Structure formats: structure tokens, C-alpha cells
Amino acid sequence: MAQGIATQAEDYSRWYTDVVQKAELADYAPVKGCMVIRPYGYGLWENMRAGLDARFKATGHVNAYFPLLIPESFLQREAEHVEGFSPELAVVTHAGGKKLEEPLVIRPTSETIIWSMYRKWIQSHRDLPILINQWANVVRWELRTRLFLRTAEFLWQEGHTAHATAAEAEEETLRMLDVYADFAETEMALPVIKGLKTEQEKFAGALRTYCIEGLMGDGKALQAGTSHNLGQNFARAFDVTFQNEQGDRELVWATSWGVSTRLVGALVMAHGDDDGLILPPRLAPVQVVIVPIYKTDAERSATVTEAQRVGDILRAAGLRVQVDDRDNFKPGWKYAEWELKGVPLRLEVGPKDIEKRSVFSARRDTREKQALPVDAIATLASEKLVAIQKDIFAKALAFRRQMTTRVDSWEEFKAELETKGGFLVAHWDGTAETEAAIKEETKATIRCLPLTPDPADLEPGDCVYSGRASARRVLFAKSY
Fold it and tell me: What distance in Å separates the CA atoms of residue 113 and residue 3, rounded to the nearest whole number?
């Protein structure tokens, strides 16, 4: 199954695309820049959505839905917002055979249309807070696309909340950042760094943007989620005010936060190897695959029956199981296919296994093989899945530590970036000019100012590029 897939060392970009397509996560759509998410890839997204949605509701949020089409004039109301998104907008000018009086923008994000509704819904402090999330699709007309990582249309969730005070808005912004970090590390087995974006990298229209940054297998960073404190910018643009407890009218405070199907791409790159995907068990559409081994028709009947019985035991224990009883493929071919698809645990059932009342197991991540007694299979399989989840995270964390380097000179910065990559922890003078110059010369950007840095990174020093005074070190990397 790995034939035709580039190795990571040979061509990482091609390896990624090969795996996404051959593992049947997604395919290219007839519309340039768009993708079709195939059932296996959508199964991954469904599991992500379920894990995130449960966390949102546990923190008091509710789901709603707002229109796909937004009056163009709405985006004009917040100048920084429209300037940030203008190059990516898709605009509808005709409908029903007629030219529209006002063009409609296909949503790139929903702040403007949601705040137009909040103006109707918010009158008093008693109407606050509003904690709404939307699961939707958005369109951003990207010129350079890559399956899952950057497409013209993609799926996501976007939270939009309204608050009475600046403190409440900031608390919400950081709370949701923590939710994203917990999801990434607990469900995706992806260690992330929580941080603050620079003014140049923040969301268009926000006061502050916070992010979680993960490191991919090729040493590039991936922004896996963002949480924005929007201040009163959108409330001001749409005249959203409330009467406070003293009877005075105030502008509402806002946040927005979101993650998208780029998380599927993150899973591929963070854990995959030259044989394909390695999926964390908590998100894998199929956690356990069972392959019957037989030579004769009589053996086929017995092994398939036993495989189904074992599958029923595991399903009753809450596991996601598939019995691969296809008779037009040999076992070795099936092993390779399920390895490509990253199924965490494979069980094999043959005539000798039935005699011994056991199954033969193989882990996808370590290739460790072991016979397991059927009488305890539910407990043992569950324990192996827990171990796989833990070990995948530990491996990714060890890789990030290995690929994180403190640098103190410009020559060292360039050399480490070129030969090793990964995260570079370096002093920055705080100016947009220096930030832009570093990006221009190396393609590395400031990923964030980490919220929980090493204490030594908060000591003042000299900027790695300009030599001017620097208050602290920040995190640089090339990124997707």
C-alpha cells in the first residue's frame, strides 16, 4: 500500500499529499482549490467535532447557525477587518437571473453578521453574556492551496461571545484557548504551545489574538487554533450597547475563537511515517481492525465467525471496531492498507489462535506484536489503546523538545533554521520592522509570545537581528 507514496526524507510535501489521498481522507474537487472530504477523513472530523462540542457545552456555550451570505456593506463597517480579508473574499453579484442591489460576500468568518443580530438581542446587562458557537463552512479564496491545510472552502467552528466587561471578555478568550490546548493534547496527542500573537500576526479586527502552535514532522510549525479578544470593535461598528446596572449605556465586549479541518492535516503531519497515518486512538474512526487468517473454506467460516465474536466483545466495551472479512485480498495486503490508514491496533485471528483461545495483536505506532487471551480481550485491547495514545503524545513531545533551540546571534539563527528547523527561541526588539525583515530574509515568522515561557526567556537581552534591546525571547519558526 505504501508503493507510490514518497518518503518523508525524499519529499515531505508530496508524502503528505500522497498519504491524504491514498488513505482516503480527501481528494481534489472539480473546483480549483477545493477538496472533497471522503468518509474516512470525515469520520476523523466527526470525532474531533464531538470532542470539541462536548467541551464547548461543558463551558456553557450553545450552538446556533447564521447565514452563509453576508451583505458586503457589513464588512465595510470594521475597517481593519475588511482590509484583512479583502484579498480572500468571494462575492455573489447575481442571483435569480438578476444583478443584486448589494453584492453578498460568502462568509470568510461571521463576526459581522453575528454582531448585526446581537444588536437586536442585547439591550440590558441581563442579556449578557451570550455564548454562541457555530459549526459551519467558510470560503477564503486562497491562491496556494493544500488539502486540509489551506483550501478555498473548509469546515470549522467559530465561537462568538458577548460580555459586559473587558475582564470577562479576556477571561473567555483565555478559557477557550485552554479548551483548544486540552483538546489538542488529550485527543490529538499533539503537544502545543499557548501564546500571544504579535500585532502584525493578530486577527484582523482584534485587540489581541492568542494561539496554540504545534510542531509538524518536518520541523515546521502549524497554528492549530486561535482565540481572539475583539474588544469593543465590532460592538462599535454595529452599535451594540447595553444598559448597565447603573442605568448607563455601554458598548459590549466581544470574543471569537475557532479551529478548522486543518486539524486533520495536523494529525497526518504530527504523527505519520513513511507507511502512512498513525492515528491517536481517541480520534481514530476505526480503533481496532480484526483480520481473519485462513486457507480453506472451512477455516474461513471458523475464523470469520470468531473475528465477528471478538469484534462484538470489543464493541460492547465501547470500542470502534471493523472486521475485515473481504475474501478478495490477502492478509498481507490488508495489513498494509490498515497501516496506511493509521488504525491503532490490529488483531489477527487464525485457526491456531482459535485453538489457543487467543488473538495476535500488532500496534501501529511501535509495530509491537503480542498474543492476547480472548477471555480478557476487552480489557487488554482498551489498555493497549490507552498506552498508544500516551506513547504517541510522548513521542511528539520528545520531538518538539529536540527541535527547539535557543539562539543568540543572527548567524546562528539562520544556520539552525536551515539545517535543523523547528522552533527557535530568540530575542526580538518588539518592532514590526524587524519582524518583517526576519520574515523576508528567512521565511520564519514569530509564531507567538509563549504564555508560560522558561523563566530564563523573560530575561532582557539583545535582538537576534537588530542588536537592539529586547525585553524577552519569542518563538520563531517556518510554518504552514
Answer: 48
